[in-house]
Amino acid sequence: MIKDDEGAVFTTKEDVGMTFTKKLSKIFTVEPTSFPVTPDDLILSFITLEESLVLETIPSFKHIKEVLFSMNPWKVLGLDGFSRTIGNSVYRCPSSCQ
Fold this sequence. Notes:
The chain is mainly alpha-helical. It is 40% helix and 4% strand.
């Protein structure tokens, strides 16, 4: 059941659909649009090519290790329930990763 702007009540599926479509047609109108010819013009570039290349590079294991070990050790417990400081003193990195 649906009521239109004049107060008329509609109960059949067809009448409800027509009333709903009529209401939405008043609210939403078609406007002319124009799109650039190439999709590249749709996306603004906020970073330079150099910045993009830096973001795409995979960091070395040494860099990952330095960043992880420089973090505050009391922030989050590891999967084993111990803080990272325990891990630093117990676990050692193999010589191949240093």
